[in-house]
Amino acid sequence: MEIDETKLGDDDYLRTARALASKEAAKLAEVVAVAVLGEDYYIATYDGTTYRRKEDKKALRDLTRLFFHTLKPSELLTLAIIVTNVSNLGDFVNSMRLMSAARTSDPEATRIEQQG
Questions:
Q1: DSSP letter at 107?
Q2: 21, 73 contact by CB (below 8 A)
Q3: Is the CB of residue 8 less than 8 Å from the CB of residue 57?
Q4: How far is CA 112 from CA 26, 31, 52, 102, 106, in A?
Q5: What's the pTM?
Q6: What is the DSSP letter of 111?
Q7: pLDDT tens digits, one per residue of 49-73
């Protein structure tokens, strides 16, 4: 999803979040559909020696359409926020930022060890 973090810091946070939800309603519906399907998103087949997993794109498409056409964008946003909270996505994104190349390639002058 395309989320402008600077806009989410505004005083009118709820209006901005609702505008983003309306714009991204189809993606939110897909996020919720994937969460609902869980492991059922994959079809497992066994050929006698190995198991193979294939994505069930039809089930995902059908469930996404159901959510997109029956739920309001605000309801989709609420469900997507619940999915995000349960999956702890915020901590994951923050840990990825800490491990980014920009962070690890800071000049040595800014390191704590060199300040003493």
A1: -
A2: yes
A3: no
A4: 46, 41, 50, 17, 12
A5: 0.58
A6: -
A7: 999 999 999 999 999 999 999 998 8
